[in-house]
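Good morning C.,

I know you're traveling, so I'll keep this short. The sequence:
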Amino acid sequence: MLDQNIILTLVLIISTFISLNGSKYFLKKIGNSKRVSQKRIYYVSKSISIFIVMISVFVLALIWSVSFDGVMVFASSIFAVIGVALFAQWSILSNLTSSIIIFFSFPSRVGDYIRIVDGDNSIEGKIVEIELFHIRIIDKDNNIVIYPNNLFMQKPVIKLHKKIETKKDLDV
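The tokens, ready to paste straight into the viewer:
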């Protein structure tokens, strides 16, 4: 039994290592082919790596027949605290999830000129950075607009074919 657990543990460690490196490789390949910034690739890669490690730890606990009674009480306490925190700041989880969706779907890229249709609060400008929680847009008055990723996914976004002249463009 012990030998079987050791072999399964080694297989799990090797599988986790391969999964981590494979996911990083494919994310870089996808990101570079779509001309995504290295910073954005890094953020998405870290998010997926954390998920892979969490699953590996859970499988390791199953292999070694860890009693989940105490772990479940501890985990439920932690999840209750996290749940309250996320309920208070639901947008954190929503923005993180939206960032990953934006990474894989590529609705817009850095350098695109867009209009986010939001009634009287519509925004028009050039995307200068797509980060983990928000998108930076520079408008025609050279103002930097920080727009949350979750709202970017919820609102209609129009890709503009014409370049919006910002004050920065006019100075150069």
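Safe travels,
E.
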